[in-house]
């Protein structure tokens, strides 16, 4: 009976069950391209009566400087090679918005060669105010891992970084400040992980002069950073237990990414002993 009900539901509600099936990126890419091609207004010099909306495949191929066969096979979901630069021309011809362009490259499994460097200079005031609304240590990092906002609890916890008049860059604090090893338990392990996490961010902004300058400066001033950077380790930023010294305290760290700007991180530390900080 259960199997019969399942078959009935599949027949009556096919669109619902279709969304539950695994997505083939190549087919999803083909459907995405075809949909956006058909949304385009006809080219200004288009001749003849058009039976279908939008651009023809021939017109899109000509605008992108690629072959008609390549466009056809791409829309059909075939396993064809798509270089980042060809995809970039395709995105421009289709007039894709930034989110749509990012989706195109994600489906194609390629990195956008002209991905713009995000600017965090215009962080909304409401975002900057977030740490102040939290009752645990919290701070906001920009793309260079420089603290842009923090609360009083974070100032009390991160002595030598978020208190007083110090350099607010987290990497420079960890590798250049003598206060860091006295504050961070298992400093060697944390330093290794921090560099690997930062490299993941750096890899998405290879053309960012501010990040390049930061790496060069740290490598010149810190043997520890230079050694760890040359190890080429890459890790996603993860939460978990963080231990501090003098006094000994343990926290659970969580990192939230701003939807409007993935370079902005809100980091919070909840005491694991249940006490207020």
From TrEMBL:
Domain HTH cro/C1-type, first and last residues per copy = 54-101
Which CDD domains does the annotation name? HTH_XRE
Cited InterPro entries:
Cro/C1-type_HTH, Lambda_DNA-bd_dom_sf, MLTR_LBD
A Pfam family annotated for this UniProt entry: MLTR_LBD
Per the record, the domain of life is: Bacteria
GO MF assignments: DNA binding
Q: Please identify the protein, giving its name as recorded.
A: Predicted transcriptional regulator
Q: Which organism was this protein described from? A: Paramagnetospirillum magneticum (strain ATCC 700264 / AMB-1)
The uppermost taxa in this organism's lineage are: Bacteria, Pseudomonadati, Pseudomonadota, Alphaproteobacteria, Rhodospirillales
